[in-house]
Amino acid sequence: MRKADVAMSPLLSRRAVVGAGLALALTDLTRARGGEANAQGATTLEAAPKALRLAPEPAKDASLFAYGASIPGPPLRKRIGETFSLRLVNALPEPTSFALLGASAPNAMDGVAPLTGPPLAAGASAELRFPARSAGLFAYRPLYAPLAAGQIGRGLFGAMIVDEERPPEVDGDLLAVVADWRLAEDGTLDPDFAARPDAGRIGGLVSLGESPAPLAVAGRPGARMRLRLVSACAARIFLAAFEGAAPTVLAIDGAPADSPFEPGRGAVPVGPGARFDLAFALPASGEARLLMRGEGEADRPLVVFKVEGEPAPARGPIAPLPADPLLPTRIKLEAAKRADFVVELAKAPGRGPDGTPLLWSVNGALNAPFAAGPLLSVKRGAPVVLNLVNRSPFAQQIHVRGHHFRLLHDLDDGWDPFWRDCLLLAPGRSKRVAFVAREEGRWAILSLIPDRFAAGLCAYFVVA
């Protein structure tokens, strides 16, 4: 296996989690199936208010939102070739939408409101049905521009998993959804979700589900673990680093890598909405730790893996995950249609029709989300190259809806050996990405930092 760089307050009383009792913090996928179906075979997913105490007494309960009464929402899980059937219920006092990150679904179900359809009104419900065409780790969240920042920041997020026909052999399979929370002095949630031209909403409380980090998990010496990591943070960018174990990257953003690889310095860079599928072996004794490593702050342990019991059976090298049959084996760059996506802080901020501040410009224009025409229009099956340019002083997490892309090398002599659907772009940098337009419809390019999305950091392209 080779190494590669992946360019890409007081807390609750700590809860130690061992074996299968992982509940809302870490989901043990060797046992959990995810989602409760009704008599018609559909899984009901209700978005509703939820009260939860995030800090110890005498702190007050925080007013949050949750899917299925849990934060994160229940893992939605199928095997490749099966069909997801969801009944969405909006029990919130405001409109919302339901969008998947990374999963292949028809454009009409893409959930980027108002681009692909209106939001789901308060008190309304909707039925979604789509096949699980690609195996991988995906996520779900609202993407209704005016309200996405507040809804995600209050707890509306969850993971979706499509299992391979023959999953790799592991001794433990864990799902970790990482979030952070910005609290007021009384322990309630800071209610300010307004767009701002800075690093974004970053909270002092870091959690896995409803449990504050770090969590403890027991495993046998030498056990091979599969860790599916999802970032539900609104704006925090961090390195997920390992101590005491050497991680191998199996997939990024739900798409299998061409072959498993060890990330540079044993860490992967994680932006909002990112998804990583990792494998590693526990040490022979002691413990291994998954750390959140942020710029200008001390490392935060997320999970502590404690070794105990008899050694696990020896296993051979980790095998690659099966290739996604929907992804092309070749992209004809010479025939690609090209477009720029240039991000800048607006020189003259404005307001959208609903009063939302517009703080970001794309290609020099200040627009409410999706008010301008498309960046480009292409026919289905056509190759596309996007030149992503960050002329702002802040890192950006840019997400392309409905498509996975290759990151092209700066010298135009190849691309990285993995796919992704979002890209961390450093201040003052530009990167080019390539993909094949595979589904008809209007597809968004947007910031996965939700208040920036609402404040104009988005555009779209058309596949006909």
Task: Kindly describe this structure.
The protein is mainly β and 464 residues long. It has a domain at 333-463: Cupredoxins -  blue copper proteins (Immunoglobulin-like, Sandwich), CATH 2.60.40. The protein has 2 helices and 34 strands. The strands form 7 sheets. Strands 1, 2, 13, 14, 15, 17, 19, 20 and 22 form a 9-stranded mixed sheet that branches. Strands 16-24-23-18-21 form a 5-stranded mixed sheet, with no helix packed on it. A hairpin with a 2-residue loop joins strand 19 (248-252) and strand 20 (255-263). It is globular. It starts with a strand and ends with a strand.
Summarize this entry quickly.
With about 475 residues, this protein is mainly β. It has a domain at about 335-464: Cupredoxins -  blue copper proteins (Immunoglobulin-like), CATH 2.60.40.
Summarize the helices and strands and which ones pair or pack.
Blueprint: E1 3-4, E2 26-28, E3 43-52, E4 62-67, E5 73-79, E6 83-90, E7 99-101, E8 112-113, E9 125-131, E10 136-141, E11 143-144, H1 148-153, E12 158-163, E13 172-181, E14 205-208, E15 211-212, E16 215-219, E17 224-231, E18 238-243, E19 248-252, E20 255-263, E21 267-270, E22 275-281, E23 287-293, E24 300-307, E25 337-351, E26 357-362, E27 377-378, E28 383-390, E29 396-400, E30 406-407, E31 422-425, E32 430-436, E33 441-447, H2 450-454, E34 458-463
